[in-house]
Design goal:
Blueprint lengths: L9 H11 L3 E2 L22 H6 L1 E4 L2 E4 L3 H5 L1 H11 L2 H10 L15 H22 L7 E6 L8 H7 L12 H7 L3 E5 L7 H7 L3 H7 L3 E4 L3 H5 L19 H14 L8 H8 L4 H20 L9 E5 L17 H9 L6 H5 L5 H24 L6 E4 L19 H18 L9 E2 L6
Parallel strand pairs: 1-3, 4-5, 4-6, 6-7, 7-8, 8-9
Antiparallel strand pairs: 2-3
């Protein structure tokens, strides 16, 4: 694929968007059909213009007129378009979620959460600088981390507002546990509430990666894009629209069963199958966009300075939709749950779709399965020999392991950190046959 940016016309961009959003008549393009096993992905059979010409505008709709060879070249084409024009990803995101405006930094104008993120990031930076100055990092691996609230839960602020009669149950997130283990020095860029699409667009990681040349780069994101601000409702069918005989859903099911067969991952076929039929076309579009963004992102890290750097992604555990806090009546956690809006992220949006509680859980089960499987497939691709994935499905062993709908308790986050620990140790061993995906089975 050429690294020289091309000038794309407005019609070119409109066609690329239509493919990702599956608005091309006669064409269904989905992330689970993309072949990532080839040693290189390139426009071998057809050039970009020929593929674009195979998408014709008829009235107000695009129609596919291409061959199977041109269909196989769609993914490299989309990678090229979205690499040259990052703004197209924002427009795709806006259209998937029917947003009136393209999201700003952290998903909103500066708020209290932005202040909390800045404070937490500065505190971690000070700890990192002090450790370097004091010589504590000499025998430790150096990591750069970019992610959301699974990497940076705003615990310091909640500690400050706690009073003596409240139980102090502030969450220690994954990075808190990794830092406490004293095996790593961590330069953190993480921010609670951050969106993957904004992380990748902001490029905050570029300068520290180039300057530090760390042993590993931890990247975690997508949860807020998927589940924040009730967006789960945009990707879930209303109960009256569910079609259990849908060819689209049967295709997803068949692909997933084939991919999981024989692997030691947490997978309940009956729950997954119950949830997959509630997935709207918008979820497929979201996954399509996630695949393109992550693929281009990992490709961009192939700089010679970073050629040996381990890159570790992570997925989430099966989020727990619940209508209200399950914390003790008098506790800091209940206040935090109320302030952060637990119940509004998942339970309420899915309740409006008229789903029963078991159906809500099944929907989240299917979505989290798909998100982890997409990242696992990327990690296993020969294209990215230094990419690894931490699959957090099954880290929570009971509902008590959830602090709220989408965040784990400290104890459960510690298990997730242990998975990261195992993954990082393997990745830094420089073993060419190293395991690429780590699951809860690796803690047993």
């Amino acid at each position: 694929m050429s690294s020289v940016p091309r000038t794309w016309t407005d019609e070119d961009l409109a066609k690329a968007l239509s493919v990702v959003l599956n608005k091309v008549d006669g064409l269904w393009w989905a992330y689970y059909d993309v072949d990532l096993t080839a040693e290189a992905i390139a426009l071998a059979e057809e050039d970009a213009q020929a593929v674009l010409d195979a998408i014709e505008l008829e009235g107000d709709r695009h129609r596919w007129k291409g061959s199977d060879g041109q269909r196989a070249a769609l993914f490299p084409l989309l990678l090229q378009v979205f690499r040259d024009r990052p703004d197209v990803a924002l427009e795709a995101f806006r259209r998937i979620f029917d947003m009136n405006a393209i999201p700003e930094e952290s998903g909103a104008k500066p708020t209290l959460i932005d202040e909390m993120n800045r404070d937490e990031r500065k505190a971690r930076l000070d700890r990192y600088v002090d450790a370097m100055r004091d010589g504590k990092c000499v025998d430790r691996a150096i990591l750069v981390a970019e992610g959301d609230s699974w990497f940076q839960f705003p615990g310091r602020w909640f500690t400050f507002i706690a009073v003596w009669r409240f139980q102090i149950d502030v969450v220690k997130d994954i990075l808190d546990h990794l830092i406490a283990g004293k095996r790593y020095c961590v330069f953190s860029l993480a921010a609670g509430g951050d969106w993957l699409i904004k992380m990748l667009r902001a490029n905050d990681y570029v300068e520290p990666l180039s300057r530090i040349e760390p042993d590993g780069f931890l990247i975690g994101g997508g949860g807020n894009d998927l589940l924040g601000d009730g967006r789960v409702a945009n990707m879930t069918l209303h109960k009256r629209r569910v079609d259990a005989a849908s060819e689209q859903h049967r295709a997803i099911l068949a692909k997933r069963l084939a991919a999981i067969e024989g692997r030691d991952v947490v997978f309940d076929r009956s729950m997954y199958e119950a949830g997959v039929f509630f997935l709207a076309k918008e979820f497929i579009s979201f996954q399509n966009l996630t695949l393109i963004q992550y693929f281009n992102f990992f490709t961009s890290l192939a700089h010679s300075k970073l050629s040996s750097m381990a890159v570790v992604t992570h997925g989430y555990d099966f989020a727990l939709p619940t209508r209200k806090s399950t914390a003790r009546l008098i506790s800091l956690r209940r206040l935090v749950n109320k302030w952060m809006g637990s119940g509004k992220w998942l339970w309420l949006p899915l309740e409006q779709k008229r789903l029963a509680d078991d159906e809500k859980r099944a929907v989240l089960y299917a979505m989290i399965t798909e998100f982890n499987e997409l990242l696992s497939a990327l990690a296993r691709s020969p294209r990215f020999p230094h990419l690894y994935h931490v699959d957090c499905r099954g880290v929570a062993t009971s509902p008590d392991d959830w602090y709220d709908e989408i965040h784990l308790t400290s104890k459960a986050f510690k298990r997730a950190a242990a998975l990261f620990d195992a993954c990082i140790a393997s990745a830094l061993s420089k073993n060419d046959g190293a395991q690429k995906v780590f699951t809860i089975a690796d803690l047993r």
